[in-house]
């Protein structure tokens, strides 16, 4: 039996090595969007039309003012999960741009959409993860737009959550600050490994959060959406996207998890990480 040295990151499992069985707790695909056309417009006027069939989405991208992205249209296979009533998480991997994956959070009740583009950079760049995220908000054409738009939040800071992805795979997450979280593998092929990586957290609805992370050791990133309203039975849906063992081929797979809140850290108020941004702004007179 080979003894793994967790400090030797060159021996860590590649993204495609994690995939088998990792999706055991994934929610079934819903066809609730089939037959619907959902057109969204971003603040700069960029417009994206989506026509959903049972398993495919045809999209048309029309750039707005100052948008350098070229106009395009294509059809991709997609997966969708109804996270809450009239709230859908949609995931697909571009065929025409295989270095990009698209995550959509579609809130039909509020008439709002949050899009997350996961992009594999052409080459590794100093000071950046190999896979980056681009976040954008939009509204649904013709819908009554209500409530707050999706926005970054510090709500998860201090929480420690145990996540079970299958009977073989389990991890814990500790949400440290607006930028960082720590993970540890509790069960599965990465058992004993741990690290601290970049993260972003957005509030979609009260108690429902989008959590995205970007790893620095393995060239991959993830987008998840989780319902934390019952902290004893948190439900998460997500995607992992990055490069395979060769470092050349994009790997894209979806998964799901059940979680439970283990503990919450309460810092001394003046040392509270959730206040770092406000304190920095106050210090600069912003």
Automatic annotation (TrEMBL):
Domain Molybdenum cofactor biosynthesis protein F N-terminal: 10-120
InterPro entries: Calycin, MoaF_C, MoaF_N
Regions annotated as coiled coil: none
Pfam families: MoaF, MoaF_C
Domain MoaF C-terminal: 151-264
Record's protein name: Molybdenum cofactor biosynthesis protein F
């Amino acid at each position: 039996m080979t003894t793994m040295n967790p400090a030797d990151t060159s021996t860590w499992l590649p993204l495609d090595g994690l995939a088998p069985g990792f999706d055991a707790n994934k929610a079934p695909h819903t066809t609730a969007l089939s037959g619907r056309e959902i057109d969204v417009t971003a603040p700069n006027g960029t417009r994206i039309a989506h026509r959903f069939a049972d398993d495919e989405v045809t999209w048309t991208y029309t750039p707005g003012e100052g948008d350098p992205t070229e106009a395009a249209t294509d059809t991709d296979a997609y997966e969708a999960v109804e996270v809450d009533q009239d709230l859908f998480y949609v995931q697909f991997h571009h065929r025409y741009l295989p270095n990009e994956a698209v995550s959509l959070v579609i809130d039909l009740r509020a008439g709002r959409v949050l899009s997350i583009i996961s992009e594999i950079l052409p080459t590794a760049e100093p000071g950046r993860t190999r896979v980056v995220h681009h976040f954008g908000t939009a509204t649904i054409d013709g819908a009554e737009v209500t409530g707050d738009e999706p926005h970054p939040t510090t709500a998860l800071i201090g929480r420690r959550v145990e996540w079970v992805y299958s009977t073989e795979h389990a991890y814990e997450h500790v949400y440290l600050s607006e930028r960082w979280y720590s993970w540890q593998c509790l069960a599965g092929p990465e058992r004993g490994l741990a690290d601290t990586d970049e993260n972003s957290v957005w509030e979609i609805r009260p108690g429902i959060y989008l959590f995205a992370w970007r790893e620095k050791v393995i060239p991959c990133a993830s987008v998840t959406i989780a319902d934390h309203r019952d902290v004893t039975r948190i439900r998460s849906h997500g995607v992992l996207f990055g490069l395979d063992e060769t470092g050349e081929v994009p790997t894209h797979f979806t998964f799901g998890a059940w979680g439970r809140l283990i503990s919450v850290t309460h810092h001394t108020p003046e040392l509270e990480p959730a206040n770092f941004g406000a304190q920095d702004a106050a210090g600069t007179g912003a």
